[in-house]
Amino acid sequence: MNKQKRALAVHDISCVGRCSLTVALPIISAAGVDTSILPTAVLSTHTGGFTGYTYRDLTEDILPIADHWESLGLHFDAIYTGYLGSFEQVRLVRELFRRFKKKDTLALVDPAMADNGVLYGGFAPEFPLEMKTLCAEADIIVPNITEAALMLEEPYQEGPYTREYIEGLLRRLGEIGARQVVLTGVYFDEKRLGAASLDTASGEIRYAFQDTVDGYFHGTGDVFGSALLAALLNDKPLEEAMGIAVDYTQRCIVLTAEASQEARYGVCFERALPYLMERLGIR
């Protein structure tokens, strides 16, 4: 048996509501990866669709945790970051990269900070440019179209999109510094939704789509990013990994809609895990 890979997921954790670490930890672990976590904050629920939630910032714990790990000589095959709540947390993740990102470590950054043309509440207008500095140190970045536009300091455009626009956006994102870019929320008509990827070395652009499901479902970006990383750590090439992540995310949404699950609690990713394992070839 091959040596088990180890990934580090740096996200907040919501006690209720499937997103961030409550999605990343089980999905990546189910894919056979030893998944370590570094919570950046603890919330009673996630912030989408809920009010009155509690929030405890864990910024002050990040470096002491890193110090202990460094004393243990830990090695990570991947570092996966999502929502970071402040300029200081972005700076601290860059420090984590300095300490733990080796030549064979895959750094995947999801610059989770905006959607539907709007920056999330609590972020200063300058925050996207700070996130851009972290993306410059990543191997793969996974922005949605709003996040892409903000980091590039371009006006947000509503879809449906043209190939010319999406491919221009990918190439401009590629200039930030990451070797590979995966852009989510891509659609050319109302029937199909998915993602597009760019490999900056080859210039190759690829697409993956699935049928659109009506409604808005929280946490799907985290499901997608976690499935993408799970596939990459199972040695799938980027194009195949992106296709698996799109298909798995859509399967989670379909199962949620069929079960009449209340959307603000996130998608039923657990019920679709056997499908993901089959696509990854894990028995």
TrEMBL record:
Residues 73-256 form the Pyridoxamine kinase/Phosphomethylpyrimidine kinase domain. One of its GO terms (cellular component) is cytosol. GO terms for molecular function: ATP binding; pyridoxal kinase activity. It is an enzyme of class 2 (transferase). GO terms for biological process: pyridoxal 5'-phosphate salvage. The keyword Phosphoprotein does not apply. It comes from the Bacteria. This is pyridoxal kinase. It comes from Guopingia tenuis.
